[in-house]
Write a structure and sequence with these properties.
With 152 residues, the chain is an alpha+beta fold. It has a domain of 28 residues: Double Stranded RNA Binding Domain, CATH 3.30.160. Helices cover 43% and strands 13% of the residues. It has 6 helices and 10 strands. The strands form 5 sheets. The protein has a two-stranded antiparallel ribbon. A hairpin with a 6-residue loop joins strand 7 and strand 8. The protein is flat.
Length: 152
């Protein structure tokens, strides 16, 4: 089945696009976390050691793995470690088995079907809203309204 037919026949999650860099996210929380960690660089520090990160999830994983000694899943082929068994499965599939799902529209390769669906929805099947006064565009009508109000 062609990916375009598959996408039209299967429900896709709404994707959230960073207006600053164009990166797509499957959740609003993911986008918010991205903007805070990448574009505002809010540093978070472990209160028990010198570990720092810009991601709250990384700090939480660090705390669980290092200070509370939760079960870790270790890759048998490299030094990759994770708190989640499904992350280890994706790692093994993508890194060691070299299994990738190819985008039908570009050279992007995904480790999971959900990553591929999010990519196609965000990069290839997006409706853009264009500014009539400059070359600004956004997948969000509200972002265009904010742009027009603040820039023109």
């Amino acid at each position: 089945m062609e990916i375009s037919n598959h996408i039209e026949s299967s429900p896709l999650k709404i994707t959230f696009l960073c207006d600053i860099c164009g990166k797509c996210f499957a959740s609003k929380e993911g986008l918010t976390r991205h903007v805070k960690s990448v574009h505002t660089r809010e540093m978070l520090t472990c209160d028990q050691c010198v570990f720092t990160t810009t991601y709250s999830t990384s700090l939480r994983r660090h705390m669980n793995a290092i200070h509370t000694k939760l079960k870790m899943y270790d890759c048998l082929l490299c030094s990759f470690r994770t708190l989640y068994s499904n992350h280890l499965k994706v790692h093994n599939t993508f890194v060691h088995q070299n299994i990738r799902l190819q985008c039908s529209y570009c050279s992007y390769q995904a480790a999971t079907e959900s990553h591929l669906k999010t990519h196609v929805k965000c990069k290839h099947h997006k409706k853009l809203y264009f500014c009539n006064e400059c070359d600004f565009s956004s997948v969000y009508k509200q972002s265009l309204a904010v742009h027009i109000k603040t820039q023109h």
